[in-house]
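hey so i finaly got around to running the thing on Phage holin from Vagococcus silagei. pasting the sequence first so u can double check i didnt mess up the copy paste, my clipboard has been acting weird all day
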Amino acid sequence: MDIQTAVLNLMAAILISILGFGTKQVTTFLKNKGVVSLMEKKQEQVGIAVKAVEQIATIENISDKYKAAKTMSVELLNEYGIRLTETELKAFIESAVSEMNKNIEDVLNDN
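ok and heres what it spat out for the 3d tokens, dont ask me to read them lol
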């Protein structure tokens, strides 16, 4: 009986260790998933702001498109309760402008 108890205790300890490791991995995955989706949401909203400013810039005589895109991005993100650092904002705006310019270039090269 002592051997059976020892084996059962060992198996229980191994099972608990495996469950603890698995829980840690799942928690890490979910945290990373949340961060990735938050970054995607930020990038999406900034992209919308950049495109909107580009479309209305000539109609409304917007001289500083960067400042307008920055203001609109912050307003859009505030609606979702999302905060953004100045560095993130600058990087997302530059990325959106770069992507927009690349798309325009691709369209022009296709014609």
